[in-house]
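Methods: holo model generation. Sequences were used as deposited, without trimming of termini or removal of tags, and paired with ligand SMILES retrieved from the corresponding compound records. Each pair was processed once, and we did not select among multiple samples. The sequence and zinc ion SMILES for this entry were:
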Amino acid sequence: MRSPAISVYDIVLRNRFWSKVNKDGPVHPILGTKCWIWSAGRFNLGSEKGVGYGAIGIDECGGGGRSGRNYAAHRVSWEFENGPIPNGSWVLHACDNHPCIRPSHLFLGTPADNSRDMVEKGRSFRPVGNRNGTKTRGERHGNAKLSDASVEEAARLKADGWRSADLAIRYGVCRESIDYRLRKRIERLCESSP
Ligand SMILES: [Zn+2]
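and the model returned the structure below.
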């Protein structure tokens, strides 16, 4: 998805943009803040449940004229807040709620290496570390084992509806190891119950 050139027409565009946002969305259980839901048109990309990304038509004057084209609302929101999206980067949802455009729920990454790198460096919304908050060499590596604390958190997020693929990006591991560790956790819980 491309980004529009947001420049001198800023104000026009911002006014249009924010008039299409409902800031009274659900409170995210982990982030603790409300999602800001795009209430106008939506794309239907990469969505499993038919809930797509917000779409906004932007013409060369920042308006919604016929000469415009559609842009992803969450990307536009990220650019309002942070400036141009670096080439090749994706704007990802920490809240996993695709119509959400709240800047604090968005972070930069790519589906694979860049996101893993981002999680390792602690720039994602909640850095992954061990219990005393420091990084260990093992946990920094892409094939690192998940710490027990991370597995517990992953289980909670999974229960909240996160997909394994998104959890894998969050913790910088492959999807199979997320699924494996969650399965092992359940087995352990079953064994330890009377
Ligand atoms: Zn959100």
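Residues 36 and 64 are 21 Å apart (CA to CA).
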